[in-house]
Amino acid sequence: MKRIGILGGIGSGKSYIAQIFGCPVFNADKEVGYLYKKDKKIFDKLKKSLPKYFNKFPVNKDDVTRAILDKDQNLKKIIEIIHLEIRKKMNKFLKKNKNMKFVILDIPLLLENKINRKGDILVFVDSKKKDVLKRLKKRRNFNLKILKKFQNIQLSLDYKKKKSKFIIKNDFTKKTATKYVKHILKQI
Known about the structure:
- This protein is an alpha/beta fold.
- The protein has helices spanning 14-20, 28-38, 40-49, 61-70, 72-96, 129-137, 144-153, 157-163, 174-187; strands at residues 2-8, 25-27, 102-106, 121-127, 166-170.
- It has 2 domains: 1-24 and 101-137 and 146-183, P-loop containing nucleotide triphosphate hydrolases (Rossmann fold); 30-96.
- It is built from 9 helices and 5 strands; from the N terminus they run E-H-E-H-H-H-H-E-E-H-H-H-E-H.
- Strands 2-3-1-4-5 form a 5-stranded parallel sheet, sandwiched between helices.
- Helix 2 (28-38) crosses helix 5 (72-96).
């Protein structure tokens, strides 16, 4: 099984590109959402670590936002709790799909959390900033301050691009995305 890691900035279209590969996808953002809604143990850990912000289950995204905006160290605390569980879920996903030719890792902090391995094929999704911002502003829970906090904990896009074997110039059309993905699959 080859692991394909999808890299790029927030809102660059990583999850969309990941789906086009037609392989099993581990989507860390979806898993985080699931943990907030369904995992009482995660709630208990968040409540214990940050009782001022988390007092009812399921975890409300507005409470997460409030905690992150209130104090810088709150984001680190949340990440410590969440990412340990995400890593476990990823390992289950990899075990379940061990006989697949390819799996896609759609994990925003793939490099930052040292989840990638030496043999992973890294694909960078390159999108124009103005297009990304336009798309992000359409999201129901868009918050520029939160966006900046998450960007600050991520490695630079230039670094991620240099680490990648392939670059997809994303113009947010299915035709272009499919063309790039077919090319990558042919190469590997």
